[in-house]
Write a structure and sequence with these properties.
With 52 residues, the protein is α+β, with helices and mostly antiparallel strands. Helices cover 17% and strands 42% of the residues.
């Protein structure tokens, strides 16, 4: 993890219909996160910032 100013936002989404492994997804793509949210996944916001 790095300071916000130096990294990429990593978004976390949750699939309420899944249990165990695979119920969460991390992505640096806000577009992908929004697409999953549109399919019913829950937005858990920015999980952390990764190095660029």
């Amino acid at each position: 993890m790095v300071p916000k100013e130096l990294g990429h936002a990593i978004y976390r989404v949750f699939n309420p219909n899944a249990t165990g492994p695979g119920s969460h997804l991390f992505t640096k793509s806000r577009t992908e996160a929004e697409w999953l949210i549109g399919l019913g996944w829950r937005d858990e916001g920015i999980a952390f910032y990764s190095a660029r």
